[in-house]
Structure formats: structure tokens, C-alpha cells
Amino acid sequence: MKKSLLILVIFIVVLFGCTKKNNNENSVSLTNDSLSSYLSLANDDSLTLTKKKEYNQKAFEIIINQENDSINRINLFKIANRYYNMNDWNDYKKTVRLIIKNAEIGKDNINTAKAFTYLGDYYVSQGISDSAFMYYFKAEKMYLKLNDNYNLARTRLSKANLQYGESDFLGGEIAVFNALKVIKGEKANDILYDANNLLGAIYNEIGDYNKAIEFHNKALESIDDKVIPNVFQSKATSLNNIGYVYQNLNEHSKAKKYFQEGLSQKKLKIDKPALYAMLVDNLAYSKFKLKELDSLPEEFIKSLKIRDSLQLTSGVFINKIHLSEFYAYQKDSVKAIQYANEALTTSRKAKNFRNVLAALKQIALVEPKNATRYSKEYIHINDSLQKAERKIGDKFSRIEYETDEIKNENTDLVIQNRNLLYVFGLVLLLTAFTFISITQRAKHRALLFKQEQQKANTEIYNLIISQQTAIESSRLIEKKRVARELHDGVLGRMFGVRINLDSLNQINDQTAFEKRNDYLTELKNIEQDIREISHDLNREKSDLINNFVVLVEDLFEKQKNTYTSKLISNIDASIKWELISNATKINLYRIVQEALQNSNKYAKATTIIIEFKKELDNLVLVISDNGIGYNVKKAKKGIGLQNIIYRTNECNGTVTIISKIGEGTTITVNVPT
Length: 673
What we know:
The protein is mostly helical and 673 residues long. Among the domains are: 122 residues, no CATH class; 126 residues, Histidine kinase-like ATPase, C-terminal domain (Heat Shock Protein 90, 2-Layer Sandwich). It is 73% helix and 5% strand. It is elongated and about 165 Å long.
């Protein structure tokens, strides 16, 4: 129980280390008002945690788009600090790893070392001591090379605190003295305070109480309000620690005085509510041991409520152990057992095996009938804990050794890699030159092939147009010849027959008269039919479709027969295709082909609309679909779109592509006629 209480004391002592993240924040003056505002809001405790995270993310989005320089990395540290204070460990870790990456790219050893300490802090928060120790050790080595004694000492203290928490008291003691060694003769009262405080805790833990009091008093003497702000309540912390040592010496009268003096510090409850609750509990416990019971158990309960509201698991555990002892003294076995069981449950949930041992010891005292069972469990856990503690010092030493070995191996590898780089560099250059040469020749051949292919396409199209023009001309000549034959030959002869038959009407034979009338009527009908046929054959329809239109409509027909999408087409009849060059026609034809392929293959369109329109002196082609669309600014232009742009430029025209995700695509080609 005493060890657990001491750990909590040291946790409070070094709590101000959690706020170290703010030490450098005022060193850089930001010119960006928005960034400064977001960082300020992210640190505003009057806002909800969600809002603070939101503002911190906005600040991060500004910083991430800035140049990777020293100011940028300082700002990223500010982002990490705020995530740290919000206990957002995931984003804290991501930000720190980004700082390490950027600092290594910029060969910024100072910020790399600092980021290693931040990463060590992360692993401490997660209870992963070996990883935390490794990153502290990496930072220590870098600060040693940089001759940065202050940060070297601070990092060694972080290692010492970690070793203390893992019960490696000898390793922690050595680390603290190594920290003090590098700042000897320098003014660094904050480090002196932390170092002496930690040494006092270590000596208290190993039972050397005189040394513990000596170093706690040194810590008290080293407090400098200019270096350590009053808000950290350093004096109250040291007074509590000294009082706690006297509690372990069973000198409760002396302990009581220190606790009372600690509680008398101004704004203690506001600045450090956890420390205030600890002092209240310690004072109550000393009063209990002195049998001054007037204010008990109210003071224990008062402390318990504060610690419970702050979710201080170890503090809650200690309060319940003290309450169990108090009620056992009052002969209230029910409450004594109740609080002992609650303490045991709390320690098991927190997986704090030291506290589990203290709870088992207490419950065995207040519940004698089950003492044997609790004692067996106590012995089993204690043996396992002692084995783990014996191994922990070796683990930290092994990490230091293996890290140095890896560093030496990396140095050898760097030399070997450099030699290999020289050997293979020339080969790589020759290979690259050969590859580039071959690639350029291949690209040149591909370009020539493409140009020949386009030339061939134009010639084929012109041949098709010429062939169809010849066919149409022959057909028109033949139609006119047939018309002349019908009009001049057949109609002339039939007209003569009708005149002759008409003259026979002078015969008064009734039967002959009727027959001749029938013949005449029939001949008139034939004459009319032949005349209509002649006129139809000879007439040139004003809306006769041009050859290009036939080709385009044939393409539309193939689209309708091949794909399920609905095709709507409209070709302005006022367009004079004969005035448009064949080169422009073939480019427009290919653009329609390419657009249809894109709509069918990529856009997943169900409706496609194609229009040819005449606008002033321009021919306008509009192709639209209701497909999935895409982001025009971000999407990479594929070969299809590049071909459309290229063919439009060939026609001296302009192309506009409008598309939105989920709203389809519209391509507008404007070509001068």
C-alpha cells in the first residue's frame, strides 16, 4: 500500500511534466491569424472536447499544406501538445510520427530528438515501458551529440521516472545522477527540483528515509517561482512528500504539520485538485493514527469523492484501504470488509498488482475466516511481481545495448551501401541512358505510326465520300434519263392513242361507244400515273440527306443495336455540309465515336444525347450523358479525352467539358464553318 501511495505521489509530482508541451509554444510568432486562432481555441478549456479537437484538426489542415521548414515543425509540435492534453493518443502519435518524418527529411536533429521524447511520452501513457525507454534512449544519444545539456538532463529524468515506475530503483537512481551531472553549474532549477524530488521518492521506496527527507528538502529549496510557476503547486507537492516519509517513519505528528502546511497553500484546490485530495487523505490518515477522530471518516470520504470525480483510480484505491482500516478500528466489520473488497476490485480492474497485494493484505486482516485463501493469492502474486521486477532492470540494459549495436551495424551498413552505390552507380547510369534511348526511339516510331494512321483514315474517308458522290451522280443521271424516256416516248404515244380512240366516238354503236369510253378512262389513269412517276424521278428533294449525315446516322444505328443505353440524336437540317471540309467532317465523326465509347465504357450512362447545331458562323456539336460523371479538375485526362481535344484543335475549334460526380458529362465542340 505504501509503495502504491508513493507512486501516486510521484505521479502528482511529475504531473507538470504533462504540461511541458506548452514550454516552447510562445517561441514562434505566427503571422497566420486563422492558425493562431484555431490553436488558441484548441487549448480553451471552456470548450467541449469535441470542439477543441475540431479546432485542432483545422489548425493541422493549415499546417500540413505549408512548407516543411523549422516553423512548420514547431507548429506541428503545438498540434501534438494539444492532442496530448486532450488525451487523444491516436492523433498525438500520428502527429509525432509525421514530425519525425519531416525532421529527418530536413535533417533537423534537434526536432528529431524532441519528437523521440514525445513518442516516449506516448508509450508511457499506453503502459508500454520498453518502447518508451527505447525512444528516450534514442533522444538521449542525439542530445548528447548536440551538446544540448538541458534537454539531455530532461530526457534522462524521463528515463529515471520510467525506471522508478517499473521498480528499477537502482537504474532510476543512476539516471537521475547522470541528469544532475550534465547540468552541474548551470541554472536549471526546474530540473533540480524534479531530480531531487525523484531521488527522495526512490530512497523512500527502498527504506532509506533519512536520504529521502534530505532530497525532498533539497527539492523544496530549489523552487524558483520564476522558473516553476505557482500554478504547479511545487511547494505543496514537496510538503506532501516530506509528510509521507514521516508517515512511513510512524512520526505522524510531524507528518501532520507538513500536510497542514501543504493544504494552506493558495489556490491549491483550484490549481491541483488531485494534490489537494491527496493531502486531505494523508492528513486524515495521520489523524487516524494519532487517534484524533473528530473529523473522521468525513475527511476520508471528502477525499474519495474528489478522486472519484477525477477518475484517479490509485487515489480511490488508497482512500478505500484507509476507510477499511478506520472501520476495522471502529469494530464495524461489515464496512471494513466492504471497503477492502471494493479496493481489491478497483486494483484488479486497473491491473495494478502492487495495489492488489495491499488490498489482499487488508482484506485478510478484516476477514480472518478467509485469510488463508487471501494469503495464498498474495504469495502467488508477490512472487510473480518480484520476478518481473528482477527482470525489468535487465530489460532496460538490454534495450540500451541492442540500440547501440543496431546503431553500429547501421553505420557499417552505411559504409557498405556507399561503396555499393559507387560500384553500381555507373552501371545504373548506363542502363538508364540505354533505356531512355530505346524508349525515345519507340515513342518516335509510335508517333510516326499514329500520324500515318491519321493520314490513312483521312484518305479512306475521302475515298468513301468520293465513291458515294459518284454513285449519287450516276443515280441522278439515270433518274433523269428514265424521266425523259417516260415523258417523251411513252406519254407521246399514249396521247396519240387517246386522240384516235376519241375520234371513234363518232360511231353510234352503243356497245362500241361504251368500250371506247372505258379505254379512254383507263388511258387517262395510266397517263396520270406515268406523269407522277416522271415528276417524282426528276424532282430533287430539298431535304435530301448529305453523305456525312448518312455515315453519322449509320453510326447511331450501330450504337442503338449494340448497347442498351437510349440514344437521342438531332442534326440541324440547315447545316450546309457541302461547305464543310472533309478533314473537319472526319474529326467530328471521330469525336462522336470517342464520346460514345466513353459514355458506354466508363460513364455507365442510360441516356446519351447528340446534337449538331448551326450557330452564326459556327458548327456546334453537343454530346451529353447522364452517367456517373467525374471531377474535371482532379481526374487525369485519358487518351480518349486527349484525342477529342487534339481533333478539336485540328479543326481550329474549341472544346468545353463539364462534368460533376453523379450528374453526368457534357462535351461541347465549337468549330468554325
